[in-house]
Amino acid sequence: MKKFWNTGALPAVLLGRKEVVATSLWCGRADELIKQGMPVAHQWNGARRMTNGWGIPKGGDNTDAAYKLIDFSLRPEVQAAFAKLYPGGPVVPGATKLLSDDELATLPTSPKNLKTGFDADVAWWDKNRDAVTKRWQEWADA
To answer: Which region, left, alpha or beta, applies to residue 37 given φ > 0 means left and ψ of -120 to 50 means alpha?
Structure first.
């Protein structure tokens, strides 16, 4: 049976109810299941990484404060502290040196896990989105 998720919480709910045996899900959701004692684990092999970025609106107020916030948030010690609260993974390589091996094991951006995952090829997806969407719909509707 095919089951597709349409909210960030649903994959963890489906795993928790044992309605599925495998799924893609955000690492923070997996981490919560693990903390609750559910028999699930991270599998980083072949994982697609998603990236985020800071932006400051052109003409926005307080741009100096925005730059200070960005500078602060990218400090290795801040990135490491945040990774201990939420396993999204620090983006500053120096932050990984401040984390234990156990903490790094749950992070998509640990040196070990970076080797097994990949970043989406945005240019390819931009060029092929319509064809891939059509093929996906044909498979999903079958």
So the answer is: left
Contacts for 79 with CB less than 8 Å, ≥ 6 apart? 73, 90, 91, 92, 94, 95
What string of pLDDT tens digits covers the 142 residues of the chain? 677 888 989 999 998 888 888 888 888 888 889 889 988 888 888 888 877 889 999 998 999 999 999 999 999 999 999 999 988 889 999 999 999 999 998 898 888 988 998 888 999 999 999 999 999 999 988 8
Write the secondary structure of 101-126 as one string of H (helix), E (strand) and C (coil). Answer: HHHHHCCCCCHHHHCCCEECCHHHHH
Alpha helices in the chain (DSSP H): 10-16, 27-35, 63-73, 76-85, 93-96, 101-105, 111-114, 122-141
What is d(CA 105, CA 108) in angstroms, rounded to the nearest whole number? 8
Angle, helices 76-85 vs 63-73, to 10°: value is 70
Residues in the chain: 142
